[in-house]
Structure formats: C-alpha cells, structure tokens
## 1
Amino acid sequence: MANENLPAETPLLKKLNEQRISAAHDRKELLERAADGTELSAEENAAFEKASRSIDHYGDLIKGEIERIQKDSDIASAYEAGIGRVNEARKRGDRRGEERTDGMAAKIREDLAASKRGETRNGGMYQELPEHRDLVSTTGAVGYFAGGGPETVPVTLVENLYSKLFDDSAVLGAGVTILRTASGETLKLPRLTSLAITAGTASTAFPQASTRVAEGGPILEAEPRFDQVQLDAYKYAQYTQVSRELVEDGVLDIEALLGQVLGRNMSNYVGYDLTLGTGTGQPRGVRTVIPAGNKVNSAAGGLFDTADFDKFFDVIAKLKPGYRRNAKWLVNDSSTFSLRKLKMGSVYAWEPNLQQAGAPDTFLGYPLLTDPNVPVPAASAGVTAIFGDFSAYYVRMVKDVRIEWSMEFAWVNDLLSVKAVMRADGDAIDDDAFAGFTSTA
C-alpha cells in the first residue's frame, strides 16, 4: 500500500505503515542473501516467514483503519445532522418530531459506538453468568462510579465528569525498556555476565594481568561469560458491564470511559507486579531484583530521618558510575515528606524541579518518583527506597492493552460487556543496576 493512500493527519496509520516498511526491509535483506546463493539458517528462515506474515498483517491493519476512518466520518456526519433535527424539533415544541429524530439519533449513535469498538458478535453462545456490579441507570453504588449508573443519566445537562484522583504505579513511566512483541511465546535475552578475563591467572580486580604478555610468551585465551534472561507473558484481565439504557441515555461516552478505566486498571495491576513481583508465576519486580549486597540497612528505626541521612549516600555508592548517571529514586508518596526535611547543613537535600513542567523533583541530585506499591518506612519494612537505572529493567508486552465490547455476552439482560486484557512480564537485565535503602536496623 503506497504512502499517498495514507491520511497524513493520522498518526496510527503512519506508525502501521512504518512497521510494515520495516518488515519489508527485513524480508528483502533475507531474499538478497538467498539470491546470492547463501543458504539461510533455520533462524533466518523463521525470520523470513515472520517478516512475510508481518507485511500481510500490517497491510490488513492499514486497510481496516482507512475503512474505519471513512465509516466513522460518514456516521459522524449523519449523527450531527440528526442532532440538529432534534434541536430544531425542541425549539418548535414538536414532541412527535422530537421523538422521531431522537430515535434516529440514538440509532446513529449506536452505530457509531459499534464502529468505534469493533464489536464482535458471538452468536449468543455464551451462558449467562450472575453479575452484581453492573452499571445500570436505576441502581446505585455499583461499578466504578461512586453513585453508580443514575448519576450519569441527565436531569439537567451536565457533560463534565469529575474524576477522583488515584495513586498509579510509576514503574512503567520510570524509563524502563519496553519490548513489544506480536505474540506471547517465551522471550530470551542474551546477557553478558563476565568480561573476557583469562582463565587461571587473572582476577576481576586486576584484569590487566591477563593481557600483559612477556616477549615470546604465550597469549592466553579470554573467556567472557553469558547467560539469558527469560521473559514470559503473564495474563491480566478484567471486565465490567453496563445497561443499554445507560449507553443510550447518558450524556457521557460510557463505552470510551469504561475502556479508559479498565485500561488504567490493567496498567496498575501490572505495575504492582513490576514493583513487588516475586518472579515465580509473575514478573520479578524492581524491588525483588535488588541484590543483597546492594541493600543498605537503616541506622536506627527504619525511618527516613536525620540518623539515616548518610545512608542514602551509601545507597548511591552501591551502583557503578555508568548506572548512576541514569539513576532515579522510587519511594512511596508519603515517604517524600520525610525526605523533604533532610538537610546537608542548612541546605535541604530535596530540590524541586522548576525548569520543566511535569519533570520530577530531585533528591541528592537524582530524580525522585513515587509509587504506592513501595512500602512506607517502618521497622522491618524491608526495602523502602529503590535507587536504580530503570532502563536496565525490561518489560515485555504482547501488543497493547486489548479493550473489547460485546452485546452478546449478556444479551438476555441487555447489558454491554466491556473487557480489558493485557499480557506482560518484567525482569532486570542486570540486577546490579539497582540498590535500596532497607528499613531494618
């Protein structure tokens, strides 16, 4: 598909086309190797097949996205025209005309929503399940809204939603390395674990001894060491339901709002494991990867107070200079108020960032992020301040968060079901990139 067929104002189409071009480039290189008479290895043959499938896959996505944009444009125009007729009918006080145009606008709106969500019909094959958290327009205290469904059906037209503030996981925004894959097979990353130190005569403290050779003397073999980091694809999922009346009568775009809420939930559930995960049947979180030798115990009590101030310098010193250059702190939000009180003489160690809007404040010269999953400082709380180069922590994500809608799943109750699914894993490529302050005397 040529570039001129892609709407320039659509970032998604640009991204899809770039991915398709990249796959085509990979396939071309392999074809040229084969044309030169070079026999492709099993890995190269597999890469050739994968590139070929990717070209077709992205081509189909581009075609579908262009068709969706055109369809949305046509339906949106009809919807706006229908709304205009509703307003005109209301001005005239023509109730019958208002009812006719209201019905037309509702039908158009339903079609537009179905187009947006790419609704999948399942032929009514699902068995109805009991559900007590559905959002409907006549019951309260359910779902994700404090008052339930009725508060979103208008008595007077209020189109703004007040969103309660929530604490969100910070790991995904801390500069981790994200690897997106099209499928969820086991992913193994090669890792260099030891430099080329000559066996037998060298030490890691003095590697130069292994390369100093006398005239005419033997040159010894170097033996770098490698292993692998394995990333799986753990599944996270959640669903909720709303009534058809709430979708049709509410002034809010309930479908889009629930998709956003569930997508945010997925990020937070994954974020919890990326911070605290044990690595057994779940990701190995950044707090778990900290080596025992990189943990600095509290001076007394485990709290962030003056007695512990020097310990934070010890935490920084645990990292190699290369990791320190890109390091950040990660603590609980409540911990920051204790850190703000610490001083070097008469100067506070905490420094607010006044140069760039939205940039984090710094502590001892390093950016500080807050994550509700990091424990609050207390006696025997374990690691309560994480310090590390988060680019050395790899997060594997299978595609993106998948949001799906269905009217068939709970058809007998006339409910719209919204489902979010995410597959991810996380682990450090080098545990030595992380250190921590431990609230243990």
## 2
Amino acid sequence: MAFDETPILDVIEKVSKSVVNINTVRLLHDFYYQVHPIQGMGSGVIFDPKGYVLTNNHVIEGAEKIDVTLTSSEVLRGKRVGACVSDDVAVIKVDAKDLPAAELGNSDELKVGQTVFAIGNPFGLQGAPTVTKGVISAVKRSIRSERGLIENLVQTDASINPGNSGGPLLDVKGRVVAINTAIVPFAQGIGFAIPVNHAKRCANEIITHGKVMRPWLGVSGLTVTPEIASYYGLPVDRGALVTEVWAGSPAEEAGMEKGDIIIGFGEKAVNGVDELVKEVQKRKIGEKARMLLIRDGQRSMADVTLGTTP
C-alpha cells in the first residue's frame, strides 16, 4: 500500500505562506572612507499576524535597510525590533496586518530521529519557498562559530543553505520547532537550528521590553572534570571554576573571586558551567540566591542578587 503524502504536503504548503525572503543592505566603509553598499539575504517566518517576523540575528545584523518579500511577491519594508545575539535570534516588524502566521511548537518535546522539514525563501522567487527533509540528529548541541559560542542547538541532516538561514524547521504537523541557521561554516551535510522555545522567549522579551531581559551573574567559567581537577590540583572534581569576574557585576558585588569553584546554586548542586547557567536562567532579575563555593580548599557561602545582562 502506497504511503499517502497528501496531509504532509498540505501542511508544508500552508506553512510556506508564512515564510518570507529577507534582503538587507549594509554600508561598508573602505580604507579611503568611501561607502559601499553590501547586499545580504536570508529567510524568516511570520509568527504573529500583526507583522512580526522571526529570523537570525546574523541575517540583519548591521543592516541599514531591510526588505521583506512575501510569497505573494509583495515587498514590505522591515524594521528591526530587537535581537538576542547569544541565541542568533532577531525580530523584524513589517507594516501589515492579517498576515499568515505559522504555529510555534514546543522544542522541549523534540526527539532524536523524528522527521523535520527545513523551509527557506532565499531569493523571493515565485513558485513557493524551498523545502528539504531530514531528521533530528541530536539536541542540545553547543557550537563555536565566528560570532562566538551558540548553545543548545538542534542538529539535523536536513540541508540548510546560507539563503535559508532564519527560516523555520517544521515537524510533520507543520509546527515550527526551531529556527534554521547557516552560521556554522564547516557544517557540510549537517544543519543547525535554534530551538523555538528559545526564540519565543527572546521574541516575547523584545516585543514587551524592547530588549532581551536576562538574569546575570557576571562570571566566566570552566567545567571542572576529574581530569581538570587532577591537572590543576583542585580540591573537587566537579563544579564551575570561575576564570573571570566581570567588573560591576552581581558576582563582584557578592565578593566572588577568580579561582572560586561554584558547587551549589540555591538548592541545586552545580556540576559544571552548563548547570550554573541553567540555574541562573531559571530565576528572575533582582532575585537573590545563595551559592556554595570552594575557595582555597574551604567551603564558603556567597549571597548574590542577580542583575540584568548588559
């Protein structure tokens, strides 16, 4: 019995109407102070019928002009509302109403092996956006790109070409589960995408506050492993080793020092930097927390009031 693809094709056709092409113009100043316009392109997805579009931050970063092309070939001027640089997510607003908005899913429910579709509109051509098919290869990937470390990415074998950056990654029900990114230059045959729950949180903060509001501790660190503990002669083989305390940060005000090892935050044990970040992000700006530290081989406590990420 032949498999009936009609339901899936209908879903893709419906969501494709929410996928847009994004063209940008950046102004480059050369050695002789002459200005040269540099064009760029990418994709995006309408997530609110009032004209809000999700895309990658790197697609519109530094753009002087943003044009958004709908599948109807209508071109609208886009305005950058804000961005979450650490997650490579940005929000654009176009002056239009009753636009076809895609349904946003729940990326926490993603399973390795499930089928997904990557959609992009790199050239704004007639004939609908491009579609590639694949599976979820892995979740919670951390990748270092030329723009820095991007954490908690979804990995897929669905092809994500540079012009498709910012487009949606869909499940078989047509729900957006991630925002595709082609920011990783060495990813041949491997695609990466930002989980939609991260994108939703960024978008909500940007639309509500005009910027991303994240709790901030103000340290850089290294995850302590048995190997690292043995190499550096540390008194514990787990925790987050503080390698830098940012000036003026909540951590500095709490008296934290370089070389401290954080092994507890609030009521939770901290086995590494990832767990520390997760515990901080669970809390609200201005919330107080008690940290359990190892300093000079001795246990100590530090009370911190979380600030806002600069």
## 3
Amino acid sequence: MQVRLKKGRETLQIAIADDKIEGVLSGSAAAPIPAETIDAVIEEGLHRHCPDDIAARKMAVIIPDDTRLWARGDRYVPTIVKTLQKLGADSQNMVIVIALGTHADVAEERFPELAGAYCCRTAPVINSANRNRARLDFIGRTSRGTDVLLTREVAEAEHIVIFGGVLHHMIAGFGGGRKYLFPGVAGYDSIQQNHSLALDETGLPHPLVRQACLEGNPVNEDIEEACDMVLQDRGCTYVSVAVNGEGEIFHARAGELRDTFMTSCRKLNEVCTAPIDRKGDFVICSAGGHRTDGQLYQASKALFNGAEALKHDGCLLLVAECTDGHGNARFADMLKRHRNDPAALGNKLLTGFDMPSYIALRVIDLLRRYRIGLCSGFSQEETEEMGFSYVQDVSSYVKKLDGTGYIIPFAENILPVSAS
C-alpha cells in the first residue's frame, strides 16, 4: 500500500505491506461543503440570531489565532463582517479580537491571514489582552475559584459574535464554542486557574479531563460557568465550522452559542472519531500539514490522538514539520528538563500551574509509555534532547516495524475510539 502523509507543505509517500496495516483511520466519509454554502449558513444564522437594534450595539467579533488557520478565517470572517454591516452594524462600533488564550501575540502583518484583508481595512483587529492587566476587566469568580478576567474590548461589547472551529480537545473535551470566549479572550492568570483543574490533588492528570468528554470534566464545567457569567447581560452568536479527516470543512452552523456548539460536537463525533477493534503495535500519524504542524506545541494534539490507537510500549511516529520550532519556550524547557522526572514536574504544577508545562507533562507521560519517533524540521540533537527518537527517513523506519498498526494521515482531526 502507498501511504501519503503531509509534512509542512510537502507530501511524503511511503510504501507499507498491506498485511501490516490494521487500518487507515480517517473517520467517516463527509464531503466538504462549498464556500458559498458556508457563506449562506453564516448569513442566515446572523440574520436569525442578531438583535434587531444591532446598529446601536457595540460589537465584538472573536476569531481564532494562527494555530487555527484550518478554520479559514481569512475566507469567512469577511462574510461575517459584511453580513453584520448589511444588518445595520456600524464598523465604527465593531472590534475584531483574536482569541490568543495564552499564545503569543499575532504580528499585525499576519492579521489578513486570520481575518481577511477586507476586515483589516474595515474595523480594528486586535490581539486579546492575555498578560496585559491594563486591558482586563473582572467579571466575577466561578464556584471553583477561577477569577474571570476578560479582555476589555469584549467585556464592553453589547453583542458578541464568535467564529471558530470545533475539534476534540485534550483538556476541555472539545475546543470551539464557549472556549473562544473563555479562555480564548481571558487573562493569562484566569486561564491558568481554569486549566489547573486538569490535575488531581496528587499532581496526576484528572481522569475525565480528556478528548470528547464534557460531562464531569471540571475544566469544561468551569469554562461553562465562566461563560454564563460573561453572557448574563449580553447576546452572543456563534458561527461554527468543523473539518473532516482530510482537514476540509464539512459542517457549518450559526446561531445561539450552546445549541450551535453542542450540535457541532455531535457532528464532529459522527465524522472524526474512528472506532477500532484492537490497539496497534504501531501508529504512524501526521499532524496534517502546514495549517496544523507549524509548531510542536500545537502538533502535540496529533500525538495525543494517535496514542489512543496504540498498545502499551508500542511504536508511534509523528510527522510534523514544525517550521516555527517548539511554539512555546516554556513547553520546550520543561520537556527537556523533566523528561526523566515527570513527578517533579507534576508537583511543580500543583503549586504554580501553567499550560505549557502541563502539555509537557502529558507529552512526557506518552514518551514513558510508548516508543515515539519524530520526523520534523528539528535536528537530531534537538529531537533527542526533547525525548523523541529522531526519524529522517520514514520509509526506512516503516520497514523496521514489527506487528500490525494504524495509519492516521490527519491525526489532528481524528480521534481513535477503542471498543476494548
């Protein structure tokens, strides 16, 4: 069998014997929908759900940052803004806010990649406040003790429109929807408080903090409570998209936040989970190419998904170009420093949680349970310093594999679900 895996902007072609493959996991068939259909969904949803007095309302449009380029904000955020203008919204009363979470600011010259050139000419495009305390407003405190500090430009808005994709998320269960509001445009410290709920009292990962799990997931429940506080006195419309196993948009919906989000989660599960009868001796997975593998920090999502199809002590190969390197300096530092001592990192997180260190802890956990190779733009020295095996020639790597396993060409998007 010939297998094609994307790595950055190139495609690797690999030959592997048919009898070694348990399956190529790509989810259920779901044809991509035309851009014009998505435009129509956006227009209809905004017409139906935006307030009648939109001309008098202060508006905030929340959009993904540059780790979510697959949602095609450059194509669809202009549709949102143009539709709002047709409904009477004044661009002078509108701000477009990039939901950074704890990620670094996006450079202004890259704003058209996220919001489209039209929007950059029409309304202010800004990064969310993140660590800038001067731009944060206190909304309240959740029952779990999370201080809800929100980017002022969103806190002052009278109607919020969120655009962004839904995907499986290793901490919140699902990314998208409410998560673009909180933690998306929240303050750094608020985000750390929320995400610290991912650990139990011993410093180990909470068992219900995982992909596709919402009920009983303390991180998700805290997010929902925070969002209820934020939206108590204002309206919110959510424009949702979801991509299939090949990274193409197959679903779009626009309307009330929770209903739109939950419907999109169900659609995502229908298409982007892959049932498996048994776990494999190996998994070969790609993060999906340049829209999803620019940095190791984000490409690790493909790693977590791929591991769901792997036996204990099995072999996993992650293909991710990582053009922009690690993606987060603290993540890289913790990965290198604690790869042989995860307990020390877990204890450190109990006294001072931060998300990059937590992701490092989860990666280290996988590195200790499986034999993981990385085919990327990193040097051999850098790859091994992070705890991965260095793989340059994927074809040679495949020839040495024992047993049978799975290929996941777009592991960012596909979650294996074991029957056992």
